[in-house]
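User: I'm writing a short report section on ligand binding and want a predicted complex to refer to. Could you take this sequence and zinc ion and write out the structure as tokens? A short remark afterwards would be nice.
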Amino acid sequence: MAKDPRKALVLFSGGQDSTACLAWALERYSAVETLGFDYGQRHRIELECRTRVRDEVRAAFPAWGARLGEDHLLDLQLLGQISDTALTSERAIEMQANGLPNTFVPGRNLLFLNFAAALAYRRGASVLVGGMCETDYSGYPDCRDNTLKALQVALSLGLDAPMTVETPLMFLTKAQTWALTQRLGGDALNALIVEHTHTCYLGERGPLHAWGHGCGQCPACVLRRQGFEAWRAGGAGELPA
Ligand code: ZN
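Assistant: Sure. The structure tokens for the complex follow:
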């Protein structure tokens, strides 16, 4: 299959969703770089998983490894100055009156994508790939398809260069995300995702469950476990083409 000649920059946290995006981009684009954000996450485990997942992907999928370029980590500690949330303080995860979990940092994905676009421009990349998703998700308005379509236009105009924002998980359920990675990289990729990616809000690695490491109780673990179990039970349904 002919590769798209463009270079892509994947927003890569080391979690299940961004690892799916990384595999999707490596299958599609001739060159791929990764970008992570250090914003004072309570759980440094996320940042450690990024390096591990990249190494494991390179080792298990040599053709992808040949296209996997540099990793970048931007220091966005300043987010701590404009947010006080469960991700950056010790406050418990709870639902707010507006239905959003208080892990919500207002407009966080807008900020991430603006920084990503600036870096992509410097790196000669014209595609941004992110794991934002409208389905099975907590309702973050800056993850919605219309928000990202509008941002794509704003970035392309503001940079005076085409900047495509790709969100391959946008309309997938969590079960379908497992089906997607199965299609992209078979059992080897899903085994890698189970073992090496991190999702748990509480930062627990703990014992390895069928669906991965984690506390098993927090909203992120529950979503991941339920998606995995639905996929294993054959409940992912048809993947969009
Ligand atoms: Zn958890």
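A remark for your report: The first strand starts at residue 4 and ends at 11. Residues 51 and 70 are 11 Å apart (CA to CA).
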